[in-house]
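A further point concerns the way the authors explain their paired sequence and structure data. The central task, working out the structure tokens from the amino acid sequence alone, is never made concrete. I therefore recommend that a typical entry be quoted early in the introduction. An entry of this sort, consisting of the sequence and the corresponding backbone structure tokens, reads as follows:
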Amino acid sequence: MRTDPTDNGGLFVGRRPGTAPIRYRALPKRGSAARRTFDNGFATAIAALMVFVNLLFWGPLPAAWLWVGSRVNYWTGSVSAGIAVTFVGLMLNLVFGLVVLKRLDHAWILVRRAAGHDQRKGIIGPIFAVCAAIGATLFAIWFFIIAGPGSSLAPSS
């Protein structure tokens, strides 16, 4: 009995119209080996671009918006204006970055399918996890080794 909402398309007993599995009259033609190799390489390049964009969230974008906020603070003499510009700019930048990542993820799925893989899910989740691990590790190295947290009990002179 199919009562799981993910199986039947919602709370209804049957499938929603238009959600039936795709049935081809004939199997699609597969590309040549060279074309599939190119598509695999292109999918890898898209994944690498997704990693690059995702890693921008962990340092360069916040640093750039902090710099812009400091310039606004300098020009206006208002710390609140600088903080507001930094916050709004960073949030808009992050949302725009997520839109770009989602489109790249969709393109990655299509390219993987063109390469002959039965690709149904994207790679955005694992990329976020890997980038979070890389970003947190690099931040910890910078904080504990390069910058040093310092001591509040014995301040340096």
Remarks:
- Residues 34-120 form one domain.
- DSSP finds five helices and no strands in the chain.
- The two ends are 74 Å apart (CA to CA).
